[in-house]
Specification:
Blueprint (H helix, E strand, L loop, with lengths): L1 E8 L4 H14 L4 E7 L2 H5 L8 H7 L2 E9 L2 E2 L1 H14 L9 E7 L7 H14 L3 E2 L24
Parallel strand pairs: 1-2, 1-3, 3-5, 5-6
Antiparallel strand pairs: 3-4
């Protein structure tokens, strides 16, 4: 069975809603299991993660979906600290090499520089030797039949 782990940080609950939707979507795929873990500020301050088995679950997963809010054109500081904590020994030992990777984010405004956060997550995944999976949906809100609620409304 394939296992995908969603690991996210949510400041006000909005990213949690997205993470749970991603988990629900994963669970609808036959023969695929989904784990979900939330990174919290205290985890980073204490340099350990409150969810027991987080790093072991990430190491054992076939794919990891990264999720965090976009603040001022970047991922949250809490999530960035998690990424940095995950770097060693995982990078040195190539624990996540060839795993599938994806990411999601949100912000208060329609654009909100979310693309820069997705790029940040993608570059991290590439540094870890992972294979980034993007959205294959065509742009939605830039033609007469498009709507602002289209999944890929900003074409990013």
């Amino acid at each position: 069975m394939t296992t995908i782990t969603v690991v996210f940080q949510s400041g006000k609950g909005h990213t949690r809603i997205l993470a749970e939707a991603v988990q629900k979507g994963i669970q609808q795929v036959p023969d695929v299991a989904a784990n979900i873990f939330e990174i919290q500020g205290k985890d980073v301050r204490e340099r350990r993660f409150s969810s027991p088995g987080l790093m072991a679950a990430l190491d054992a997963s076939d794919g990891i979906v990264f999720g965090c809010a976009t603040y001022m054109g970047s991922g949250s500081a809490i999530y960035k600290a998690f990424l940095e904590a995950a770097f060693l020994p995982h990078w040195l030992e190539q624990r996540w090499k060839d795993k599938m990777a994806a990411g999601f984010t949100n912000s208060a405004s329609q654009s909100g520089d979310k693309l820069s956060t997705l790029c940040q997550l993608m570059v991290f995944a590439m540094q870890m030797g992972m294979l980034w999976v993007g959205v294959s949906d065509l742009p939605g809100n830039n033609w007469s039949g498009g709507w602002r609620a289209d999944i890929n409304r900003l074409a990013t």
